[in-house]
UniProtKB/TrEMBL annotation:
InterPro entries named in the record: Bact_HTH_transcr_reg (IPR050679), Chorismate_lyase_/UTRA_dom_sf (IPR028978), Tscrpt_reg_HTH_GntR (IPR000524), UTRA (IPR011663), WH-like_DNA-bd_sf (IPR036388), WH_DNA-bd_sf (IPR036390)
A matching Pfam family: GntR
Protein name: GntR family transcriptional regulator
Matches recorded under PANTHER family: MANNOSYL-D-GLYCERATE TRANSPORT/METABOLISM SYSTEM REPRESSOR MNGR-RELATED (PTHR44846), MANNOSYL-D-GLYCERATE TRANSPORT_METABOLISM SYSTEM REPRESSOR MNGR-RELATED (PTHR44846:SF1)
GO molecular function: DNA binding; DNA-binding transcription factor activity
Keywords in alphabetical order: DNA-binding, Transcription, Transcription regulation
PROSITE patterns, per database record: HTH_GNTR
Domain HTH gntR-type residues, every copy: 35-103
GO biological process terms on file: negative regulation of DNA-templated transcription
Amino acid sequence: MQVQASQAANQKTDSQTNSAQPDMAQAHIGLPSYQPLYEQIKKMLTQSLINGEWAAGAVIPSEMELASRYQVSQGTVRKAIDALVADNIMMRRQGKGTYVVSHAEEGVKVRFLRLADEDGAKIFPRHQLLSCERAIASKRVAVRLGIEVGSPIIEIKRLLVHASQPLILDHIAVSAATFTGLDSAQINAYGGSMNSMYEQAYGIRMVRAEEALKAVAADETSSQALGVALDSPLLQVERTAYTYGDKPIEWRLGLCLTDAYHYRSELD
């Protein structure tokens, strides 16, 4: 009887230990317990990116190190990283580890590029800066950027040109508080894409974007910039781009010619 009582007590102790382990991990993470554990780890990894612990292009700690840090299994960490890889936030390199995706990577720097020729091949237009000025946020821009109406912003207007032909008139707005010192001299000196410049100069990486498409007629400004007749058909693409934690960073309104090129979207 004493042996049976001892075995029962041991079984009870083991059961209490096993059931407590997930609670310990959840308490360590400080997130709602109803979320799958790997989702909690994913959010913790994302928070580390928001805090600047790992820069774009940097290798993150190993799965073993992260498992020890968060007091969970390596399998849970692996599943969390898998989710970030699927979101194009991280990438694995065979024999080298897991890296934070950078817009400098081939294939990543054109992730948001949608222009293609009639054969479906992506084209890479050059950017011609028209203006870069300080302004105040309209209601439309403020809502998209998650800032107060009247907040200081930086407005950028540029022309995207391919084979000497204007293709897109871009109107971009970002928060002046986020991009301190951004001006035309900096944009021209950098020479690369806006997303790459945000990353390299400000440590802000775009990870996703939302777009709304609409057919519009060219007004006087767009017709002159694009070299088309007034009321010519254009494709309007309104886009809000986000960084880690779904924070809106950039609002963009593009007016696109569609006679020789089209706007291509890939759906998973």
